[in-house]
Design brief:
The protein has 358 residues and is of the alpha/beta class. It has 13 helices and 14 strands. Helix 1 packs parallel to helix 2 and helix 8 packs antiparallel against helix 9 (279-296).
Length: 358
């Protein structure tokens, strides 16, 4: 039996797959992995192109666009291997990209998910925004990465080349145990797209699983191929989903204060959009907050279930400070400046050896 399924979710990405699928085929041994494309009801000829040019790829066509979250949930229901890789269609993989993530998953049974080092395809010596060298969040739910703080992306000089525990793994290239994905509920379909992988990882981490970044494996991600950074739809999804994620996962002891602070911080973000002439962006933030309030009651049972299953509190990889305060007032511009604490830069191999000695 093969070890892993490489699952690519496509929606009208014919050109991207023609460009990037050859690297996946070239560097993914058939004896180890199957390659699957789950098509979200594309209308650009994607499925016809796949059947003609890539007949060895397993095609799973859907009747419509289910979004990133539900699309992957449906694809994962068809996976038959012990592990899967959720891989964006705009990712170029490199030789031996499967080796280290699969080795870690084989060796450490409490590790549920792994991401490789993700570099920018356009600026190849720099990390890529969506994941870089492993993701974290601060106490108010703001995500950041080893190699990316807010919009500042670092050059990769090998400064984060140790395997490390992380809070979240990027959905651009996310290795996960198939059984764990199904058992713990997969991605939240209501999110549709954006931050759904962070929500899943928060659940996993709080329930006692571990997540790692293995920088020995490297991929290159185009990023921003679906929605541009200033797109109001993207702004809406990011703010709404972030609030939902906090409500679902934040413990009772901290949730009220976090939500009060976030109300003011979101207003400041809307004000920033207004000052820079992006009225649609400001409106998207207020629409996101209204949508969150409308969804909140329906999520109360989900929140109660999540909290009842918490095994790790607090999660060690959550920054116990305000990311915005640290960056804008204290001028912390890199991950190393923001998180000098060894727990954010630990070697998983050394940590396990230490635990065994103990």
């Amino acid at each position: 039996m093969k070890k892993v399924s490489v699952v690519i979710l496509n929606w009208n990405g014919k050109a991207l797959m023609e460009q990037f699928l050859p690297s996946v085929l070239a560097h993914t041994p058939e004896v180890v992995a199957e390659i699957m494309v789950a098509d979200n009801g594309s209308t650009d000829g994607s499925t016809e192109m796949l059947r003609e040019k890539f007949p060895s790829v397993r095609l799973l066509p859907f009747d419509r666009n289910y979004g990133f979250a539900e699309g992957y949930n449906r694809a994962m229901a068809a996976v038959e291997t012990p592990c899967a890789v959720l891989l964006n269609s705009d990712v170029e993989v490199t030789p031996h990209w499967l080796d280290e993530p699969l080795r870690v998953l084989d060796e450490y049974p409490d590790v549920a998910g792994v991401q490789p080092k993700i570099r920018s395809w356009k600026h190849r010596e720099h990390f890529e925004y969506a994941g870089a060298c492993g993701g974290y969040i601060d106490r108010y739910g703001y995500p950041f990465c080893r190699g990316r703080i807010l919009n500042g992306v670092e050059e990769d000089r090998g400064q984060y080349d140790r395997t490390a525990d992380i809070f979240w793994a990027s959905g651009a290239c996310f290795f996960i145990r198939t059984e764990v994905y199904r058992k713990e509920g997969g991605l939240d379909a209501v999110f549709f797209a954006h931050q759904e992988e962070i929500d899943l990882c928060w659940r996993l981490r709080a329930r006692g699983y571990r997540l790692l970044c293995t920088p020995q494996s490297v991929v290159y991600h185009v990023g921003g191929a679906t929605l541009e950074v200033e797109n109001p739809r993207k702004t809406f999804l990011n703010f709404r989903n972030n609030l939902l994620m906090i409500y679902k996962n934040m413990p009772d002891s901290t949730l009220p204060r976090v939500m009060r602070v976030r109300r003011w911080l979101d207003c400041l973000a809307a004000g920033r959009f207004l000052l820079t002439g992006h009225l649609a962006g400001a409106r998207a933030i207020f629409r996101a907050r209204r949508a969150f309030r409308q969804l909140k009651k329906t999520y109360q049972p989900v929140r109660e279930d999540n909290l009842s299953r918490v095994r790790v509190d607090p999660v060690p990889e959550m920054l116990p400070r305000n990311l915005l305060f640290s960056c804008y007032l204290k001028r912390k511009k890199t991950f190393a400046e923001l998180c000098p604490d060894e727990r954010f830069n630990n070697s998983i191999i050394q940590r396990f050896k230490g635990e065994r000695r103990g």
